[in-house]
Every structure is written in C-alpha cells, then in structure tokens.
Amino acid sequence: MAEGKTESPGPKKRGPYISSVTSRSVNLMIRGVVLFFIGVFLALVLNLLQIQRNVTLFPPDVIASIFSSAWWVPPCCGTASAVIGLLYPCIDRHLGEPHKFKREWSSVMRCVAVFVGINHASAKVDFDNNIQLSLTLAALSIGLWWTFDRSRSGFGLGVGIAFLATLVTQLLVYNGVYQYTSPDFLYVRSWLPCIFFAGGITMGNIGRQLAMK
Questions:
Q1: How does DSSP classify residue 20?
Q2: pTM of the full predicted structure?
Q3: 188: which strand partners?
Q4: Alpha carbons 100 and 89: distance in angstroms, whole number
C-alpha cells in the first residue's frame, strides 16, 4: 500500500522588495542606505531651487558644491530621511496597524512628484503675502497626506516632524548658519512647516514601501 505523499509548503512568494533579505539587520541597513541617498538627492535638487529663487541665503564661504549648496545640507537631509523612513513602518508595526493604503511604487512616485511640486510652488508662485502662500501650501500638504497616506500615525508623525524640523531650522538661522529672505515666522518663512510635513509624509511612504514583504 503506497503511502500518501505530503507536499512540503513551497517558499513564500515575495515581491521585489528589500524585505526579501532574511537578515533583519541587513534589511534595516540596506533600507537606511537607500533612504539616505534618496534624501541626499532630493535635498540637492530642492535646495538648489530655493537658492536660485533667493529664498535661502548661505554665507559665501560655506557654498562648497557644484549644486551651490552648503556641504552639510545633503548629509543632514539624508540622515533625517533615513530616520523618518525607518520610523514610519516601525510605528505601524508597534501600533498593530499595517499601512495598506495605495501600497505600490507608482503611488509612491506620484507622492514624490507632488512633494517636489509643493516645494517648487513655495519658491516659484508669487502671492500677495506669505499668509496666502502658507495657507495654500498647508492645504496642499494635507491633501498630499489624504491622497497618499490617510493614517492617523502618518499625520501625527508628520506634525511632529514639522515641529521639530522647524525648531531646528529656527536655531540654525538664529545662530547665523544661514538665513531666509523676508522671514515672517520668527526667523523663517511661515510656510516652512508645511514643507517639512509634506516631506515627512513622502519619506514615510517610501520607507513603508521599502519595508513591504
């Protein structure tokens, strides 16, 4: 009498994600490096736009790159991007609320494009006063969260990131590291928290996508 054969379950099917790396530490390191370089690239592009429009001004002696940006800006933005991108999926996991809204790379790319557009608007679009610009960018930033995130944790982290980043920027400007033209919110522009909020949501979406299995 032939014994019935039990088929062993095949390997779990995985998508083309970094999470296919079995070692958690290697997985974390790769995601951190990828997020760092994405942050560096976005910082170079967006900071160049701000400098060309004379929104931010650096002392001549710190302009030290072909992108006319202070050397420390890209590494700082890259580090912040890595921390934010790793923090979002970590918070989702600890809250037991995996983020499943629009989880595909095409949506993430659209989110990045909208974020770049918001930053572009802050430098290019002329309003009668900064209040109108700030309200417009605030609406666009919340619209970005609603379109590509819609999670309470994402909104809360975005607000926290905007607050901390704006505070750090205020301290940097106060100490003369660089300055903003026509500041209307202490030492910076009133729309700056909107940019930081949108940036946090964008890097969080990238981090969540990289962490997917």
A1: G
A2: 0.79
A3: 185
A4: 11
- Calpha distance 199→161 (Å, rounded): 9
Q: Using CA atoms, how far apart are residues 46 and 77, in angstroms rounded to an integer?
A: 11
Task: Indicate if the alpha-carbon torsion angle 177, 180, 184, 188 is positive or negative.
Answer: negative
Closest CA to 117 of 42, 59, 28, 174: 42
Q: Rounded to a whole number, what is the largest CA-CA distance in the chain?
A: 89
Q: What stretches in the chain show pLDDT beneath 50?
A: 1-16, 61-68
* Local structure of 13: helix, strand or coil: coil
Can you tell me the distance from the alpha carbon of 162 to that of 158, in angstroms, rounded to the nearest whole number? 6
User: Position 159: which residue type?
Assistant: V
Question: CB neighbours of 131 closer than 8 A, spacing ≥ 6?
Answer: 184, 190
Q: What crossing angle do the helices spanning 24-52 and 73-95 adopt, rounded to 10°?
A: 130
For residue 48, the SS3 value is: helix
Please choose, from the candidates 210, 192, 213, 193, the residue with its C-alpha nearest in 3D space to the C-alpha of residue 88: 210
Which of these, 194, 53, 198, lies nearest to 134 by C-alpha position?
194
Task: Look up residue 125 and give its DSSP letter.
Answer: -
Which residues are CB-neighbours of 44 under 8 A, at least 6 positions away? 65, 67, 69, 74
